[in-house]
Every structure is written in structure tokens, then in C-alpha cells.
Amino acid sequence: ILNVEQSPQSLHVQEGDSTNFTCSFPSSNFYALHWYRWETAKSPEALFVMTLNGDEKKKGRISATLNTKEGYSYLYIKGSQPEDSATYLCAFLKGNKLVFGAGTILRVKS
Amino acid sequence: NAGVTQTPKFQVLKTGQSMTLQCAQDMNHEYMSWYRQDPGMGLRLIHYSVGAGITDQGEVPNGYNVSRSTTEDFPLRLLSAAPSQTSVYFCASSLTPRGRSQETQYFGPGTRLLVL
């Protein structure tokens, strides 16, 4: 993988469902992997910065894991709520550049 | 702290016109960057700076210039606007992008640019 890839592109779930997305990135020369939450008409807001292989981070119902050897990170949302609807971006630190994936759009129906 | 501020919020230009998008931060961050956001393409890095006097190109630098004369300000100049530059532009800053510190990027509110 040369750049950052996110899957799925979009996801529609019911309120209360748990969901997860994937971010794939180059596994060589790893420095950091960022996750951002981006609501429509707002600016992206940081969720996590992950730097160590095996890292697990948690913020409320949202958590993330990191595997730097195989080049992927998972973002989990437990018990999705309508206010979780947003685009979730991951970004890979490549030298001095933060390279973003295209994002996963999450829509939670009540 | 005001965080990261951007002006203007919205601008309409005619093809060939030039303009400067302003970005300022009051957090004493060394690293600043400009991104453009287009549908289905996430955020693409235009230019970035790791400190005053130091700038470098990102993924899509053509048609844009930057300078960093102070730590606080990082203006983005469109030299001769083209319809392909119609986009939403975000400025961001962080203390440093490198290392094992927990530094995230803080984004400004964005500038919506329409080039006719």
C-alpha cells in the first residue's frame, strides 16, 4: 500500500448498532496514525493519535487499535447514536506530511 | 485562545484573478499546513511549513504559493485562479507532526472558494 486507504466508503447503521471501519497504510517507516471526526459544515476534530504497535485508545464509545507491522488501524463505535453521524478520517504521517484517506461516511438512523 | 482562524469564510473569484487566503494561529505551533477538500477525495495537502521561514510542497501544490514569515501566520496565495481550484480550503496547525508526542492537528473553520 502506497497511500492511505479507508473502508468502507460509507456505512448506514441503526441506532444502537456497533460498527467498525478500517484504515490501511504503508507499514514501513511508521511514525504516527491519526483519526479525525468530521461533521458536515464543521472542521475535522481529532479523536486519536496512535504511535505504538498494539496501541489501543478509547474515548467514550469510540475506540481504536493499531497494527503497524501489517499496516492497519480499526476504529470501533459501540452502540452508535445519531450524533455519531460524521465522516471519519484517518491520516498517516509520512515524513513531515500528514496524508489523509478519503474517509468513511457514517450515517446512524434513529 | 482563538485557535486557528481563517479569512475569508467565502470568496468568489473570476478565472485569472489572484487572491490570498489568510490563516493565523495563536498556539505557538511550529507546524502549519493547507489542505483542500473535494468531494470523495478527503483532505489533500497543498503546502506545509515546519517553522518560520521553512515551507515545502504537499500532494497538490501547483497553482498555489505560501510563505511563513512568522510563527503565527501562513497565508496561501492563488496566483491565477482556475475553476479547478473551486474547493473548500482548510488550514491546520500542530506543535510538531513528528515523534511520539500526542500532537494532533487543529483545523480552522475553512474557506469556501468558488472560481467562475
Order of helices and strands of chain A: EEEEEEEEEEE
Q: Helical segment tally of chain B?
A: 0
Q: Which chains have the largest interface?
A: A-B, 23 and 28 residues
**Residue-averaged pLDDT of chain B:** 92
Name the helicity range of chain B.
under 10%
- Counting helices, strands and paired strands, the structural category of chain B is mainly beta
Percentage of residues in strands of chain A: over 45%
Note poorly predicted spans of chain A: none
- Please estimate the helix content of chain A: under 10%
What are the segments of chain B in which pLDDT stays under 50 over at least 5 consecutive residues? Answer: none
Topology:
The complex is a heterodimer of chains A (about 110) and B (about 120).
Chain A: E1 5-7, E2 10-14, E3 19-24, E4 33-38, E5 45-50, E6 56-59, E7 62-67, E8 72-77, E9 86-94, E10 97-100, E11 104-109
Parallel strand pairs in A: 2-11
Antiparallel strand pairs in A: 1-3, 3-8, 4-5, 4-9, 6-7, 7-8, 9-10, 9-11
Chain B: E1 4-7, E2 10-13, E3 19-25, E4 31-37, E5 43-51, E6 54-57, E7 64-66, E8 76-78, E9 87-94, E10 106-107, E11 111-115
